[in-house]
Amino acid sequence: MNPAYCEAVGRKKEELEGDVFMPVTSEKYSDVVATQMTKLFRPPFACTVEQWIQTPNGMRCFSWSAKSMLDNAKAVVSIVAIGHDITRSKHDLKTTRKKDEELMLVVESGRQMYYTHSPEHMMIFVSPRIRSLLGCKPRAGNWAWTDYLTDNPINAAALERTIRAISTGKREPPYRLEMKGANGKTIWFEANEIPVVKNGKTVSIVGSMIDISERMKVEEGATEAELLIKDYRNPVIRPYGQDIDSEPVNGPFGFLRSIFSKKAEEADSASGEGSDNQQ
Q: What pLDDT shows up at residue 219?
């Protein structure tokens, strides 16, 4: 051990001679470190480990690059290791992750849910809310967004727009698509995408999505209502008191309004007749 190591751990060279190199038996990561160090006794006879140890300055984290020295019979005769104190970078990484979590909380509070995918449609980043809606596992492996598309014909147009954006590097208008999650739930999304272009080539697609499932139900209901009364010009179902030559109502919703208006007039008339009879 060199003087820098002795100073770091706060011990003299004479005290360290014959001691165990890895004094982390009480550290929760000791099993992981030990497992990594088994690579020193089989090819590639090298490993990199991070070791938390108690020092005069408190707990410090060291990153070690270790390599085995072999004899002619390929037996390990010694191990050479070079270490660096990475405690500060560890703390910085923890702080960055905390800020990322706080930023994600802000991002996730809006309607939009964000994602990025490669030109091959493999997901790079997926908003936690999208994962939740699709029933994805938090640490699921690489997957393509197309894996969740249903056989609804509208998805063909959505895929065509994405492919066009990738090939041209130009933004396409928003589109709708129907997806089915791992939990079997069908969800409608409206997607808005922007291609990321570097050196004239699309390297990724950045997009936002909103859940429009409830809106689609309302629109489908309105469409069904219009189909049910599409023959409102037929005299059989025309408003009471309106003959075939009279001016038609304006559209199916006008037809409904005329019916309710007529009903209200009849109710008022009946109420007036009742008052006359009582007088």
A: 77
pTM to 2 decimals?
0.46
| Residue 3 to residue 10: CA distance in whole angstroms | 10
**Phi/psi of residue 90, each to 5°?**
-65, -45
Whether residue 114 contacts residue 125, with contact meaning beta carbons closer than 8 Å, is answered with yes
- Cα distances (Å, whole numbers) of residue 45 to 70, 103, 153: 9, 42, 56
Closest CA to 179 of 212, 208, 141: 212
Nearest-angstrom CA–CA distance, 22 and 83: 12
**Is the backbone of residue 213 left (phi > 0), alpha (psi -120 to 50) or beta?**
alpha
132 to 91, 136, 179, 219, 260: CA distances (angstroms): 30, 6, 13, 25, 44
| Cα 206 to Cα 192: distance, rounded to the nearest angstrom | 9
Q: Beta strands of 105-236 (E only): which ranges?
A: 113-117, 123-126, 175-180, 186-198, 201-211
DSSP secondary structure letters along 259-274: HHHHHHHHHHHHHHHH
Q: Residue 265's pLDDT is what? A: 62
Please list the helix, strand and coil fractions of the chain in percent, rounded to the nearest 5, in that order. Answer: 40, 25, 30
Q: What is the distance between the alpha carbons of residues 238 and 252, in angstroms, rounded to a whole number? A: 11
All residue ranges of the chain with pLDDT < 70 are 22-30, 100-110, 137-142, 224-279
- Torsion sign across C-alpha atoms 248, 253, 257, 263: positive
- Per-residue pLDDT at 244: 43
User: What was the pLDDT predicted at 245?
Assistant: 46
Terminal Cα-to-Cα distance of the chain (whole angstroms)? 116
Distance of alpha carbon 133 from alpha carbon 271, whole angstroms: 54
Tokens standing for 161? 């727009």
Task: Pick the closest to residue 147 from 108, 189, 182 (CA basis).
Answer: 182
